[in-house]
Specification:
six-stranded mixed β-sheet; about 30% helix; four-stranded mixed β-sheet; Dipeptide-binding Protein, domain 1; globular; D-Maltodextrin-Binding Protein, domain 2; about 500 residues; alpha+beta; 3 domains; Dipeptide-binding Protein, domain 3
């Protein structure tokens, strides 16, 4: 009833705003709604997707970039050469690139950025991207030589992640609150708890942005998000949080509803290093307790594709492993008894403040109760989740979407928060790095998927959909999300 009253109040507010004529007409800016405020604006120093969703491709750029369909494109590097043994990459940089503070961007900045990301004291959340790098050398101001210790099949793709953007030594320490990049938009201001504003960079080295400004407005409440959209206070929700209200928007000519795919594997993450979850039988029991259809219906209004391992269904190498441990309460109870828990046990589930996690957590708690696991839910803020769960591994269970692209290799990292790091899996990842093309990589990726599924490392739930709702006149936004981004470089307003 409380949620119904909240939605009703939001609708009343929206109608009132509409009756008053709504907000003043803006000429050439865009207001985008976001559910989560990022903890900082430096994509090289944290794991929050909310950071990349604002600054990737807009404020910061890397040597390469990921396009709307997941393709690797030139960025600060206009081209590159690769040695026959795939151990040496020569990057040729664009001439005349400057940071937003007017300083030049050259080979020295590339070396600084890559060395900083892979340094022992680095706080980069994806240090594994840089692990293959043996050295970075300045050939001349516009040429950089990167030497690898071993072949890395996804190296160019990895250099297009937000974690690999190029920063300047003069501003690296303050990018968290005052980001200075090379992109088509410059940071303007951050009104904490309210909005983050970007403005067009008039001195951009490449094709200029078509928008004059972009304002990211923080609206964590789904009902309020719907109300803001209806009132015209928001032009676009690239990830619309009120999926239950989509039927009320469908058919309204003012709005476009775009259903796309993401790289977001939504999982019930399990701390494999903590008892009793270090027992395969316990994890298998959890897998049998999960009713994916009910979960998707309740947590995501039926949007989302079931997954049985940590891999996106749209990838050519995907294997459908949802039947590895089918929904079977009796099997779950039997496995718990075999593991020494005939009467079940208690556990804690820490949930970040995103709708799919909070809604999904309530459903999964009931499903796990059916096999005897009594789950206490602990709702935490995003910063707490990053600190307690992701960084320090202080958790039993959690729900999160891993939206990083091609990230199955995280299961081979010793210090990754769910603590799997099976030697046989590491061997597969080493074999993958040596594979020269997609044909050679596919069977390795499929073997890795099967290993994760059979070991029930996590509870694999569904692929997070990208549900965008925006003004029908707003053109150029991404339908899919191959990386964590709201790329505004090609966004513009169509004439009425």
């Amino acid at each position: 009833m409380k949620s119904v009253r909240r939605i009703a109040a939001a609708l009343a507010c929206a109608l009132a705003l509409a009756a008053c004529g709504g907000p003043q007409t803006r000429v050439n800016d865009v207001r985008l709604g976001i559910a989560l405020e990022p903890p900082n604006l430096d994509p090289t120093s944290g794991a929050a997707a909310a950071t990349d969703e604002i600054v990737y491709a807009n404020v910061f750029e890397g040597l390469t970039r990921i396009g709307a369909h997941g393709e690797v494109l030139p960025a600060l590097a206009e081209r590159w050469d690769i040695s026959p043994d795939r151990l040496t990459y020569i990057f040729h940089l664009h001439e005349g690139v400057r940071f937003h503070d007017g300083t030049s961007c050259d080979a020295a900045d590339v070396k600084f950025s890559l060395d900083r990301a892979r340094a022992p004291e680095s706080t980069n959340a994806q240090k594994g991207l840089f692990e293959p790098i043996a050295s970075v050398e300045i050939v001349d101001p516009l040429t950089v030589k990167v030497t690898l210790t071993r072949p890395a099949g996804d190296f160019l793709f990895n250099m297009g992640w937000g974690d690999a953007v190029i920063v300047a030594p003069e501003s690296a320490a303050t990018n968290a609150v005052k980001p200075i990049g090379t992109g088509p938009f410059r940071f303007s201001r951050w009104l904490r708890g309210t909005q983050i504003e970007l403005v067009r960079n008039p001195d951009y080295w490449g094709a200029p942005a078509r928008l004059d400004a972009a304002i990211f407005v923080v609206i964590p409440d789904p009902a309020a998000a719907y109300a803001a959209l209806l009132a015209g206070d928001i032009d676009s929700f690239p990830n619309f949080p009120a999926v239950e209200l989509l039927p009320q928007i469908e058919g309204d000519p003012r709005f476009a509803i775009v259903i796309g795919t993401t790289e977001g594997e939504t999982i019930l993450a399990i701390n494999n290093a903590r008892k009793p979850f270090d027992d395969l039988r316990v994890r298998q029991a959890i897998a049998h307790a999960i009713d994916r259809k009910a979960l998707i219906l309740g947590a995501s209004e039926g949007y989302g594709v079931p997954i049985g391992s940590h891999f996106p269904p749209h990838d050519p190498a995907y294997v459908d492993l949802t039947g590895t441990y089918p929904y079977d309460i009796a099997a779950g109870r039997r496995l718990l008894a075999e593991a020494g828990f005939p009467d079940g046990f208690k556990a804690t589930m820490k949930l970040p403040p995103v709708a799919y996690a909070r809604r999904g957590g309530e459903i999964l708690a009931q499903q796990l109760k059916a096999i005897g696991i009594d789950v206490a839910i602990e709702n935490v803020e995003w910063a707490q989740w990053l600190d307690q769960v992701f960084t320090n591994g202080d958790f039993d269970l959690t729900i999160v979407s891993h939206t990083e692209p091609r990230d199955i290799a995280i299961y081979g990292r010793d210090d990754y928060y769910f603590h799997y790091a099976k030697p046989a899996f590491k061997a597969l990842m080493a074999e993958l790095d040596l594979a020269a093309d997609d044909a050679a990589r596919r069977p390795i990726l499929q073997a890795a998927q099967r290993m994760l599924a059979e070991d029930a490392v996590n509870g694999f739930l569904f692929q997070l959909p990208k549900i965008g709702v925006w003004n029908a006149r707003l053109m150029g936004q991404w339908a899919d999300a191959p990386v964590q981004a709201n790329d505004l470089t090609a966004v513009y307003w169509r004439e009425p």
